[in-house]
Amino acid sequence: MAKNKKIGIAVTDPGDWTGVALRNAIRRIGMQPIKFSFSNATSDIPSGKLYAGNIDLSALDAVIVRDMGPSTKKDISFRFDILCQLKELGIEVINSPESIARAANKYVSSYLFRKNGINTPGTVVTNNPDEAIKALSTFGCAVVKPVFGYKGIGVERIENNEEGVKKLKELLEKNNLLYLQEFIPNPGRDIRVFVVDNNVAGSIYRIAPPGSWINNLSQGGSAKPCILTGEQEDLALRAARATGTVYAGVDIIEGDRDYVIEINGTPSGKGIFEASGVDVAMKIAGYLKDMVV
Ligand SMILES: Nc1ncnc2c1ncn2[C@@H]1O[C@H](COP(=O)(O)OP(=O)(O)O)[C@@H](O)[C@H]1O
Ligand SMILES: [Mg+2]
After folding, report:
1. Is the whole model's pTM more than 0.90, yes or no?
2. Which numeric CATH code is attached to 110-118+185-265?
3. Which of 119, 136, 253, 264 has the greatest count of CB atoms below 10 A from its CB?
4. pLDDT one-digit tens code per residue, 87-120
């Protein structure tokens, strides 16, 4: 019976490691994986049809969103709209479009962490240069990040001095908005926790390359297996719950205490598999197996 279940995998790059792992995992649970890309999405209003290339999206039983694909301000909402419409048709979409949006937006996720009592560094988001300068002087050393950033791109450390203030003003002029976070002194590594369905599926340390303080694997960081403390596990599970993500990559940094720095609603499983042998795609497939009956 499960054999007839069609599971869409939204992925842009056909060779993407996580996309391939998800396809294999879906096959292993006896369902049919169908990859599609949002770059090919079409909605035909008269017929009500939603498709990507020649794939009828409304005929799917569930959709796993590996990535939303490269998009601009002008077309990103269309992709979210399609996911919302698929949900309306009764199709299980993981992660849900709402939770992907919350996790992708660092301002919203910081707000949700605070609201749910999840320890997160001091953060100020502002359009106002005076407020930004005030925050920098309170933090002493700040990390500036794009609100919709990923893979450590555009993350900068700013010191509380004349040069730092100049840089801050430049960044504000360029982006119209500043997301400033207190820099947390740490042991040169952070922790990526992969959560699936309210459980920790795997976790790794990510160690910054020499001379860097950015630990993302895509920025040259290396991965090592990591055993979480109970506190770290609890933080990761609560962060996933706060954003409503079924599966998520939660970044934790070890300072004077543990802090959740951000959450990713479309995380890669590659680093965790390579460092610890844990196949998070199988855990995601396991979740779907119970949901799609
Ligand atoms: N507040 C902070 N204090 C210290 N290091 C940080 C802080 N915020 C981010 N970093 C470092 O920068 C990296 C990228 O930041 P992150 O918030 O995870 O954004 P991205 O979405 O680009 O991965 C983190 O993995 C961590 O190594
Ligand atoms: Mg990160």
Report:
1. yes
2. 3.30.470.20
3. 136
4. 999 999 999 999 999 999 999 999 999 999 999 9
CA distance linking residue 87 with residue 113, whole number of Å = 26
Q: What is the mean pLDDT of the chain?
A: 96
For residue 206, what are the CA distances in angstroms to 44, 135, 222?
45, 28, 5
CATH for the 2-100 domain, from 3.30.200.20, 3.40.1190.20, 3.20.20.300, 3.40.50.20: 3.40.50.20
Give the strand order in the sheet containing 6-10.
32-36, 6-10, 62-65, 92-94
Ligand 1 within 6 A of CB of 216: yes
The Cα 68–Cα 52 span in angstroms is 13
253: Cβ below 6 Å to ligand 1? yes
Closest residue by Cα to atom 11, ligand 1, is 214
Tracing tokens 């969103």 back to the chain, one arrives at: 65
pLDDT tens-place string over residues 147-204: 999 999 999 999 999 999 999 999 999 999 999 999 999 999 999 999 999 999 999 9
- Ligand nearest to the CA of residue 105, numbered in listed order: 1
**Paired tokens of 281:** 């795609």
The bound ligand whose nearest atom lies closest to the alpha carbon of 156 is 1
Tokens 């209003």 locate to 45
Alpha-carbon distance 77 to 117, whole Å? 30
